[in-house]
Inverse folding.
């Protein structure tokens, strides 16, 4: 078998694998909803730094703040305003927060969660290696001497309840990154690798916070649907239906706790309840809820989803003659 035949066989196998995956994967509904299980107003305090690298603690702190600012369901108190307030009130700003101080910061800022922690190690390495500079038929044909530069940041992240001063989470999180460059080139320093490693820590810290204090689901209103594997695929995303059609609401519970309570309420234009469905759901469950629009008057209607008593979505739709 020559190389061309081998490549064609590999491509054919790849196409079959992709087609199989597409068949097995159920696409998510069009809308995403995140609801906090409790109020998530967050402030990111200063971090302690036990490593020999200066300012790495502020890099990690800044990346965590930026990540949380862009996280649905989380409100973040400005880091600059927080530092100014702590200085003005002569409160601790080094990351060493006792329960009394945590509660006082919560009172002054209105936040419910404080995030702080420590950088306890920053490891950097430079290792001799080789780098491929030429390829042919998927094989490396030429290499040059190179150096692999790597960084690893080890941190401890704490989440403190600003209403009680109690530490609710304490996790060890690491972040790392590396780059390889020819020996003949000039290395620009570890700063960019440190920043990338800090971003990894921020991603994991935010993910831990969100997974602990929020729930997430995907949903969508559709004209038609089909079953696929253990879920549903909607066709014709819509907020506009004709009298006599059926509105199909598909919900996928992507991150909840097992046995959470979920209610669906279909509401008329005057706010009266047309239908209510009380459900008990588990993580990764799919649900299909339907409303028959036969003999419904034209107007603007709504469908509401409530998880454990908190409204997750309130989606309007219209019925036309």
């Amino acid at each position: 078998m020559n190389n061309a035949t081998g490549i064609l066989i590999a491509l054919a196998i790849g196409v079959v694998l992709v087609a199989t995956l597409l068949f097995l994967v159920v696409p998510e509904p069009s809308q995403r909803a995140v609801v906090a299980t409790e109020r998530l107003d967050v402030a990111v305090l200063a971090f302690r730094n036990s490593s020999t690298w200066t300012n790495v603690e502020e890099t990690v702190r800044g990346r965590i703040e930026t990540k949380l600012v862009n996280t649905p369901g989380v409100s973040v108190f400005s880091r600059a305003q927080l530092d100014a307030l702590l200085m003005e009130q002569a409160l601790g700003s080094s990351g060493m927060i006792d329960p009394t101080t945590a509660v006082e910061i919560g009172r002054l800022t209105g936040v419910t969660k404080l995030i702080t922690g420590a950088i306890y190690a920053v490891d950097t390495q430079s290792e001799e290696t080789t780098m491929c500079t030429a390829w042919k038929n998927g094989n490396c044909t030429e290499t040059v001497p190179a150096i692999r530069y790597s960084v690893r940041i080890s941190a401890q992240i704490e989440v403190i309840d600003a209403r009680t001063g109690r530490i609710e989470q304490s996790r060890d999180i690491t972040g790392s990154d590396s780059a390889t460059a020819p020996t003949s080139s000039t290395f620009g320093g570890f700063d960019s690798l440190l920043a990338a490693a800090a971003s990894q820590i921020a991603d994991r810290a935010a993910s831990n916070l969100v997974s602990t204090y929020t729930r997430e689901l995907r949903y969508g209103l559709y004209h038609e649907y089909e079953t696929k594997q253990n879920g549903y695929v909607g066709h014709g995303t819509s907020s506009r239906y004709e009298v006599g059609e059926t509105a199909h609401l598909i919900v996928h519970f992507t991150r909840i706790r097992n046995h959470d309570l979920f209610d669906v309420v279909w509401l008329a234009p005057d706010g009266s309840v047309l239908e209510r469905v009380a459900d008990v759901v588990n993580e990764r469950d799919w649900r299909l809820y339907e409303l028959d629009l036969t003999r419904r008057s034209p107007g603007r209607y709504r469908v509401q989803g409530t998880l454990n008593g908190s409204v997750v979505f309130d989606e309007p739709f219209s019925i036309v003659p």
User: Anything to note?
Assistant: Helices lie at 3-24, 56-69, 79-88, 99-109, 191-213.
